[in-house]
Amino acid sequence: MNRTDSLTGKAMVITGAGRGIGAVVAQRAAGLGAFVVVNDIDADVASETVARIEELGGSAIAHCGDISDPNYCERLIEACIAERGQIDALVNNAGLFRMGPAWDLNPADLQTMIAVNVLGTAHCAMHAIPRMRAAGKGSIINVTSGAASGIAEMSAYGATKGAVSSMTYGWALDLTGSGVRVNAVSPNATTRMVAAMQEFKGIQDQPRPFQDPQHTAETVCFLASDRSAHVNGQIIRIASGQLSLVAQPKPIQPGVSVADWSIDTVAQAVQELIAGQ
Ligand SMILES: NC(=O)c1ccc[n+]([C@@H]2O[C@H](COP(=O)([O-])OP(=O)(O)OC[C@H]3O[C@@H](n4cnc5c(N)ncnc54)[C@H](O)[C@@H]3O)[C@@H](O)[C@H]2O)c1
């Protein structure tokens, strides 16, 4: 298989592909031969992505809608089936964020982030997975964030991305042996989302070459292709020009055995563990 036909014959759904990382992924995937369903809540930008793909000789359709609506997610996946009779890859890219310390966020913002980042990701997958299982193949690529590990003023957004990471690990286990793989990327790329974050923090910064969304696009396309047939349940970090695997959170071993449980013995054990770090 050569580099330019790695996705030939594959049908992909990419959410939030009207701009930012999703748009670059969509263009690259189409360039590698995939048929792409370009979702975005903003119809104009979805159409622009499709126009750019077609100009370059690729194949795509726009599908405008809000992934926080579970009924819409079903229509989105079925649109891919209606066009190509299959769905080979789903890129759960659409997402948004609100910044601020925990006590400054309002309930509506919290609900919107959960509805789009967590439930939108889950609903798209819930409709794609039965189709993929029936075909005995498929690749789901979620988009998480470094904020899942905790970043000041991004706790709520980070929590939604922590949920995306947890779903990635859990779905990969659920689907073991089915031919369907689930992985995630954790990008760092110059987009309007990063511009909004910098504005919030009062940072005046120029786009940096190592934050090129193309790096994420290449990684997502690799995960969508059969070249990653051996990769499942991984979160791949793309930042500062480097790829790394993200370690799954788990208890640090060895722990401390506590024979006689009391607040005093717990205090002593925690002290011992922290001192040993
Ligand atoms: N840019 C980064 O460095 C970075 C870092 C970590 C994670 N991410 C994640 O990458 C993904 C893409 O981010 P981006 O930086 O390209 O952002 P972006 O804001 O540039 O693009 C996001 C796109 O998603 C669309 N969208 C938003 N809500 C939607 C909804 N309900 N239904 C359908 N489409 C919707 C928007 O209209 C937009 O076109 C997000 O999930 C984000 O959380 C980005």
Provide a brief overview of the structure.
GO terms for molecular function: oxidoreductase activity, acting on the CH-OH group of donors, NAD or NADP as acceptor. The protein is an alpha/beta fold.
Structure characterization notes:
The protein is α/β, with parallel strands linked by helices and 277 residues long. The chain has a single domain (3-249), classed as NAD(P)-binding Rossmann-like Domain (Rossmann fold). Helices cover 45% and strands 15% of the residues. β2 (35-40), α2 (43-55) and β3 (59-64) form a beta-alpha-beta unit. α1 packs parallel to α2, α1 crosses α7 and α4 (107-135) runs parallel beside α5. The N and C termini lie far apart (47 Å). Nicotinamide-adenine-dinucleotide (NAD) is lined by residues 15-16, 18-22, 39-42, 45, 66-68, 93-96, 116, 120, 143, 145, 187-189, 191-194.
Give the SSE map.
Blueprint: E1 11-14, H1 20-31, E2 35-40, H2 43-55, E3 59-64, H3 70-84, E4 89-92, H4 107-135, E5 138-143, H5 155-174, E6 180-186, H6 192-201, H7 213-224, E7 235-239, E8 242-245, H8 263-275
Parallel strand pairs: 1-2, 1-4, 2-3, 4-5, 5-6, 6-7
Antiparallel strand pairs: 7-8
Helix pairs in contact: 1-2, 1-7, 3-4, 4-5
The structure holds nicotinamide-adenine-dinucleotide.
Nicotinamide-adenine-dinucleotide binds at residues 15-16, 18-22, 39-42, 45, 66-68, 93-96, 116, 120, 143, 145, 187-189, 191-194.
Family: Belongs to the short-chain dehydrogenases/reductases (SDR) family.
Pfam family, one: adh_short_C2
Organism: Sphingorhabdus lacus
